[in-house]
Every structure is written in C-alpha cells, then in structure tokens.
Write a structure and sequence with these properties.
Keywords: CBS domain. This protein is an alpha+beta fold. The chain has four domains: 87 residues, SH3 type barrels (Roll), CATH 2.30.30.240; 64 residues, no CATH class; 109 residues, MgtE N-terminal domain-like (MgtE N-terminal fold), CATH 1.25.60.10; 114 residues, CBS-domain (Roll). It has 16 helices and 17 strands. A hairpin with a 5-residue loop joins strand 10 and strand 11. The longest helix has 12 residues.
C-alpha cells in the first residue's frame, strides 16, 4: 500500500479525484465515514463517500483504497455504484464533525475544523488527531481574529468517546448489520456485564442467530442466564436441530420446562430430534426442508426456494412427497434440484422431473456414512427417510461439517482471531 505511516488530514483529501485501477477518474472524495468503537479504541475509518460525475454519492470501503497522496486517491477492485446511505452507527466526518462546537478545560469552547486519519494494519485506518480552533467567549471573532488552534488526540473529544450506555446502544446498532458469526464473536469478546446488557436489547431472532454460532458452553451459559420465558422464545427462533443440540446440554428439569413453554409445533420439532444420537443423520437433520406434493408446479417450487429464511443449502433442493407435507410426511417420492427447476417452464409439474434414483439417508446413518454420501453424490443437502418411507428431515452440508469438526472448533475460532479484523469491523454489506 503506497501510503506513509503519517496521519492524513481529511480536509486535504476533500475534493481529490478518485482514480480506478486503469487510471480513469470515477469521481471525487466528498466525505469520510467513521465508526466509533468500544474499549478505548480509536474510531475506525470505514470508507470514503465518493461523488460520481452524475452527482450520485457512493461508498468505497477503505480496503479498496490503494494509495492516498496530495493530488489523488487511487482505488482498486470493482466500484459499487449504489447510492450511499449512512447507517445509524456511522458518522460523516465533514458533514457531522467539522464545525462542531465542544467544551474545553477552563470553560473554553472550541470548534472542530479538521480530523486526521492514519493507516494501522494493511488497508485499515483509524482516526488519529482532531484539529481545534478556540472560540471567543461571546462567540464572535473581531476583524482579522482567527482564534488559537490546537491539535489533540481523538480521545479528548467527547463526541468520539462512548459512554457506558452509548457503548451498549452502539453495539446493538452495529449488530443489526452483522452476520451471525460476527455477532457471536462480539458476544464472545465482551465482559459478562456488557454481554448481559447487549443480550437484553437484542431481539429474539438476532440472539438466536448469534447463539447458534457460539461454542456450546457459551450457548448454555447465555441461555441459562435468561429467564425461562425468554429462553423459550429464543429457542423457538433457532433452527430446530440447533435448538435440540442445545437442549441436550441443559439440566433435564430446565430442558423440559423450556419445551413446555415453547409453542407446541416448535417443541414437537425439537422433541422429534432429541430421540436421535448426535453423530447420526437424525441428530444432524432439520425437520423443515422444502416439501412439495407431486402436482406442484415449477412456479410454486421456485416461489418456495426464494424464501429468504432458507439457507442456500436447503434452497438447492425440493423434496416431493405424498401428503401430509409436514415431516414425517406421506410416502417419499424423490427430489428435484433447484437448478433443474430453472430450466423448465413455470407451468410444468415437478413430478415430471423427479430424481427417484437417489438413495436417501436413514435417521440412524452414522457420521462416516453421511459424509461419504455427500462426497459420492456431490450434494449440499440430502433427504432422510425412515423405515416407513416417510421423509423425516434433511441434512445440510453445513450441519455435517459442524459435526465433523472438533467439539471446541467454535471456541478455537473465536480465540484465534488476533490476526483478523475485529468482528465489528466487517465491511459494508
């Protein structure tokens, strides 16, 4: 990265041309997006707001910034031309910090007139210093008077230092944009008191998503710290197979109490999975794959797999069964790959493209058998059928991998992140 380790004042890059990898100008720098961070860490510089020639403003993440000098900013990679929209946890330096008035020692007041940023690690930047101009007591300068200036550390500016409540609010706002694994890493890294405050403010679905990505012992500790009514609500939002795995780790009395508090349908799905050993197809499967009757059309099938709640693995295949269509279903007939659905007219019935040669897994199929099955057929999801030829669920490849890795793999992943960007520093999108 061809930038010096010295700080760059943001006023000096305002309006600079932004050049792509071929040397063509794509626009000009209009602002810098920063994100306040916790634990006394300097605000992170997330990226630049670049104004295109059509006067549309877009966001360019800092990892795309290849070089900054006195005459231009060079970027690399593709430019996302969607219109820039500021998120709740972000601050625009020029629009929101420049000219802001702050209080200084001895009842003096000053205005921010510049902010510097500096590179830290490869392609990461953070706020370094803030330039201040002292204001006169009456708020007005005499002719020719400009006021004394000073450059101070970012930590001396109240607006850049989070208070205890602001830290919690800020973390919750950040998590709204995070992937579940990143949310889990944030919770893993928090002090117990902070974690309890954040968990209290997260909605049940967010907490369930993060819980599924935590190490098993932390899942148990977090769930048992909740009151039982909320714990049951969170379990309802989890995937049934993940909820079943977690309930197995709870004291029997608590597990039964939570199952009693859950909605009957959700509890029934979980109870149905508790009868299987962990390292079997039944112990790994979800009871909620996409199931259709043979007279369903391609249009209906595609509408089902478009559901944003489905994982990519579950959306890759539909299972064709006789009614009832809830697991355990009527007689299992076969499968249809989503890729095949995309090649057929919308009005065609799925029964006409059935793949009935694929031998399904059985609930008691062992882990080694399941893994060989996936490798043999190059699948990302597989049907699980009982002795009555009823579909009871489907094993997705991500659940298979979870069970093939060492038991403490999530904990090791959380603890081995020193060389990776902090999870709250995930790039936009």
């Amino acid at each position: 990265m061809s930038v010096s380790s010295t700080a760059v004042f943001i006023s000096r890059i305002r309006g600079l041309p932004v050049l792509d990898a071929s040397g063509d100008q794509v626009g000009r720098v209009r602002d810098v997006v920063i994100q306040l961070r916790t634990q006394g860490r300097a605000p992170r510089v997330k990226g630049l707001v670049v104004e295109l020639f059509a006067r549309r403003r877009i966001f360019v993440p800092m990892p795309r910034v290849h070089a900054v000098d006195a005459s231009q900013v060079a970027i690399e990679g593709q430019v996302d031309t969607r219109r820039f929209s500021k998120r709740d946890a972000e601050t625009l330096v020029i629009d929101e910090l420049f000219d802001r008035t702050i209080s200084r020692p001895e009842n003096r007041r000053a205005a921010i007139y510049d902010v510097s940023m500096r590179p830290t690690r490869a392609r990461e930047w953070e706020v370094a210093d803030v330039a201040l101009r002292e204001l006169p007591a009456n708020g007005r300068f005499r002719l020719g008077q400009r006021g004394r200036t000073a450059i101070v550390r970012w930590s001396e500016i109240p607006n850049l230092v989070l208070t205890t409540q602001q830290v919690t609010d800020h973390l919750v706002a950040q998590m709204a944009d995070m992937k579940p694994a990143d949310m889990a890493r944030e919770l893993h890294d928090m002090a117990p008191e902070r974690r309890a405050e954040v968990v209290e403010q997260l909605d049940d679905e967010q907490l369930a998503d993060a819980l599924e990505e935590l190490p098993e012992d932390e899942q148990v500790a977090l769930l048992t710290a909740l009151d039982n009514e909320r714990a049951a609500d969170v379990l309802e939002e989890m995937n049934p197979d993940d909820a079943a795995d977690l309930i197995k780790e709870l004291p029997a009395e608590m597990a039964e109490d939570l199952l009693q508090r859950m909605e009957p349908d959700d509890a029934a799905d979980v109870r149905g999975l508790l009868i299987y050993a962990d390292l079997t197809a039944g112990g790994m499967m979800t009871p909620e794959p996409v199931v259709l009757s043979p007279d369903a059309t391609v249009a209906e099938a595609l509408a089902r797999v478009r559901d944003e709640e489905l994982t990519p693995a579950l959306a890759s295949m539909v299972f064709i069964c006789r009614p009832p269509l809830d697991t355990p279903t009527g007689r299992f007939l076969g499968i249809v790959h989503t890729q095949r659905l995309l090649r057929e007219p919308p009005s065609v019935m799925v029964s006409g493209m059935l793949d009935d040669d694929l031998e399904p897994l059985h609930p008691h199929s062992a882990l080694a058998e399941v893994s060989r099955y996936f490798a043999t057929y190059n699948l990302v999801v597989a049907p699980v059928v009982n002795s009555e030829n009823q579909l009871v669920g489907a094993v997705a490849v991500d659940d298979l991998v979870d069970h093939m890795l060492p038991e403490d793999w999530r904990g090791n992943q959380m603890d081995g992140e020193d060389d990776e960007p902090h999870s709250s520093e995930v790039s936009r999108g």
